[in-house]
Each structure stands twice: as C-alpha cells, then as structure tokens.
Amino acid sequence: MSCQQKGHAVSGSKRITVDESAWQQAQAAAARLREVNRQLPSMLEALRRDQQEQLGRVDATVRARQEAVEQSLVGLSERTRTLAAQTSRRLRTYAATLRGELQDSAGRIGEETRRSLDEQEERWRSQLAQEHEARERDFQQLRDGLAGLHQDRERLLAAARDLVSDARLQAGAVAGNLPHERFAPGQLAALQQRLALAEANLAAGAAETALGQGQELCLRLDELRAEVEMRDQEWRGAQVAAVSATTLLLEQIRLNTTLAVADAHGEPIDGATLDVDYWSEGELGELRAQAEVLAGRAAKQDDPLTLAKLRAIIEQDAPELDERLTKIVGQAGARQFASQVRVNLAELVVGTLEDTTGYVWAAGQATYAAEDPRRAFYSKLRHLDSSEIVVEVAPGEDGQSCVLRLLSFDAGTPDEEERARRAHVIADRLRGEGLEVGGPAAEQAEPDPALTDLDGLRRRVSEPRRQSLAAQDAASRA
C-alpha cells in the first residue's frame, strides 16, 4: 500500500495535536488562586477603611449643606418653621440609613451588589412616598389651623403675607443651596412663576387667593427640597459605591499581577511565580488601563456621571472587568504551564527518536523561538548521513494547547514510509504517557529549511515580541 493510500501526503512535516485537558486543569488552578486573592481579609479591610473615609467626606458635605439650608430658613413664620424642622429631621434619618447600608456593602462586586442596589432603590422609593405622606399630613394641620381666618380679613391678610414670604424664603434656600437643576430640572422655575402670581394677588389685596397659593407653594417647595436632597444623597451613595467597586477592581488587578504557580490541585509550588501580564501577552495591562479609566469616570466631580451611569459601573462594568481578570489569570497560568509542557514534550519526542532511529540530539540544539518561552520550542536531531529532524512544539491559537510537528530534512531521497512510521511511533509513545493525541497528519508544504538554524531561531523576534519591545522602548524614551 502506498503512502497516499494510507492517508499520508508526501511532505516532510508531520503534525500531531495534543488535547487541551491538561491546560484546562492548569487554567482552573490559576483561577483558584485568583479567587483566594478576591477574599483576602487585609485587602477587604483596607477597602472598608477607604470607603469609610469617603463616607465621612460625603457625610460632612451633606451636613454642611443641610445646615446651610436650615440657616436660610430661620426667617420662616412659626408654623412653617415647625414643618420645615420636621422635614429636616426625616432627611437626617434618611442620610444615616443610607450611610449604614453603604458601610455594609463594602467589598462587594457582582450579583450581591446588584441585589443590594435594587433593595436600596426600592427603599428609596418607599421612603420618598412616606416623606410625601408625612408632609401632606403636616401641611393639612397647617390648613386646618388657618381655616377659621376667613371671617377676619386682617388676620387672613397677615397669614397670607406670612405664607407667601415663607415660600419666597424656601425658594431662595433651594436655589442657593441645592442642586435642583440636576435632580429636578425646571421644577423650581415653575414654582417661582406661581410664587410671583401669589405675590401679585397679595399686592392686589386678594388675601384669600394668596393664602391658598401660599399654602400650596410652601408644601411644594418643601417637597422639592426633600426630593432634591434625597436624590442627591442617593447619587452620592452611588458614587461612593462606584468608586469602591473600581478601587476594589484595581486592587484585585494589583494583587494578581504576580502569583504563585499552582499545581493541578491548586496548591502553590514553592519558588515558582506567574507574571500575569507577561503570560497574558499584555492583556492584564490593557485591563488595568480600562479599570483606571473607569475609576476616573466614577470619581469625577466636575461634569459628574448620572445616577444611571454610576449604577452601570457598579452593576455591569466593574463586574465584567472582574470576570475578565479571572479569565486572564487562568489563561496566563495555563500558558506558562503549556510552555514547560512544550519543553517536556520535545524531550520525550527526542528521546523516542533516539531510541527508534539513527538520529542523535546534540547539546545546545534546543531553543524557544527568540528565546521567548511563550513561543514555539524547537529541538534538532542529526543523522550520520547529515539528514536532520527538527521537533517543533508550538502553542495552539489560544496560546495554551499544543501542536507537535516533526520536520524532516533528508539528505537523500525522502522516505515517506519511514517518515509516517516515525510519526505513528511518536503518537503511540505520547498515548502511552497518558496524553490524548490526534492521529498524525501530513502537511502539504515542505518545511522551511531556515528552521534547522537554531542560532537563527534564538535571534528571531516574533511580531508580538517585536511590538512589546517597541512599546518598552517608547516608554523608556518618554
């Protein structure tokens, strides 16, 4: 039976693909180490302290603003001042509750954070509704207290004058101290127009009309104040959570820049380390840059992000980058493992060829391409008749799996039967070592003679390596 009938094309290259199971185990082992780092107590404690400092600054800002609002309202009439003080107490209680929830959520990323935010949103809506109901009750008492004034024009006019004046003070307090256009755009301007109408009615002596308008304006302005303050506190809480999420992410990236190398059971190997950025071909550095941009966006004070965008950072962006970090760490660990496997596999193949053929390996006839352990590994054997075999063990497209090629360079007429026999012997030997390998397949093209020059292979700089060196050079010049 001819070589072609046996399924062997006429070529000096024989390819054997080794399965990915071992690399998947290595990837899982590296990922387990990353998960250990995710819950380091010292890191979580540092994050909590950082968040505590942020909350302290937010609390000081909120308190100062509330005091400024309250100071602006000292001229209110007695009835309205009492109602405004009740609103102030409820707002302070809400701020303290929100602060406690944020403290409890420190160190969370992912589904747990999303649930916490959803619960906070639901409580905020419930709190806003309760605040509205409480204010309606308070102001109903005000209306009831003024109900008997309609028969006394002088008292009616004085009460209308007080309420319209109160409304003017309230409008000034909102305008001067609260970010009303960010959280309730246009509402203050609409109320100020109604206030101008109430002042005109008061000036015209329409006391009863001005009284009703004053009551309604005081209620709506107090409501606007409460809504803006609560929305602002909600936004500030979301910003603290977004900054904390990105801070945690950056800390996780830092902790996972260099890791102990794990065995198949996830146990660290003494003295062995994994440079994640190196073995990920710079993916970790790219992830770090993206995380830094995200952190900068979250922390912006001028032109700050909206509440929706802050929540997107907390619920989507940071968790997605966190998941990518786990994947990158796992792939880097698997690639480093695969690099050593390429050497071991080449040694096994060389030993098999020496045992079953007249080819001999000479010291020094082995190298990684460009001496870069992320690249293909080459080892060369020589026959007495000057024929040569180069064993190439290259990473697969994912950088982890392994492709073995036997590159035959015959001094005389190629013997395809012998080449095929060698390939099958190697495949059987690998299976005997417990590796699942595909059957040998011949490549159509003849192997490149330049691959016999191992000194040249050592000097060769692959394109990814060339780009890395160029980037390092540019950085050093900068």
Quick recap:
The protein has two domains: 13-19 and 357-477, no CATH class; 41-249, no CATH class. The protein is built from 14 helices and eight strands.
Could you please describe the fold and organization of this structure?
- By secondary structure, the protein is α+β, with helices and mostly antiparallel strands.
- It folds into two domains: 13-19 and 357-477, no CATH class; 41-249, no CATH class.
- The protein contains 14 helices and eight strands.
- The protein has helices at 21-38, 41-72, 78-104, 111-146, 153-177, 180-183, 187-203, 207-255, 276-279, 283-299, 307-356, 416-432, 454-459, 463-477, and strands spanning 13-18, 258-262, 268-275, 360-368, 377-382, 388-395, 402-409, 441-442.
- The strands form two sheets. It has a six-stranded antiparallel sheet. Strands 2-3 form a two-stranded antiparallel ribbon.
- β2 and β3 form a beta hairpin.
- α2 packs antiparallel against α3 (78-104), α8 packs parallel to α11 and α10 runs antiparallel to α11.
- The two termini are 66 Å apart.
